[in-house]
Amino acid sequence: MPPRGNVYVIDDDPAMRDSLEFLLDSVDFQVVLFESAVAFLDALSTLEFGCVVSDVRMPGIDGMDLLKRLKTNGNPLPVVIMTGHGDVPLAVEAMKLGAVDFIEKPFEDDRLIGMIETALKQPKDGGRGEAVAPDIAARIETLSPRERQVMDGLVAGLSNKVIAREFDISPRTIEVYRANVMTKMQAGSLSELVRLAIRGGALKD
Fold it and tell me: Can you list the domains of the chain with their CATH numbers?
């Protein structure tokens, strides 16, 4: 069976690199490992199209610096950023810099595989992202003022408790607002909500 596509894994943790290589190789991706963003950038000119899966916190050039360099050079490789728990604000910033998605460690194998499959299909979609922006903006308009405040808190990486404290209402009430936001925005996950907020103009670059 031919490879499903190229995946370039960048992580300074050898155990994580080995684990991702085993996982992605088992589902027929062609995997290349890099121990640093510097090593990846050095090899970039020789690489075929593929999805980059990069840790965000690395010594030297970290995931954010890598995204900035790829964006500056107009490189088309889609990037999925791996973050630790509590790094949602950093992940939001990464998506503003052009990352196609982010995933929090520890993550489910199938979720990462699905993200990579989606990322590898992106170039075939052409300008699809721009075309859906007005529709997403319309979804944002359906949010009540309080729901909009809750969405802004969520995409800023705030917990339900922190948002509740900020507006002096119960965390349980925030859960209700959060569910309403996810339904109205048609978002199945926090990363999807962040993407929609960016494309709909709720988050500016």
Answer: 6-125 (3.40.50.2300), 128-199 (1.10.10.10)
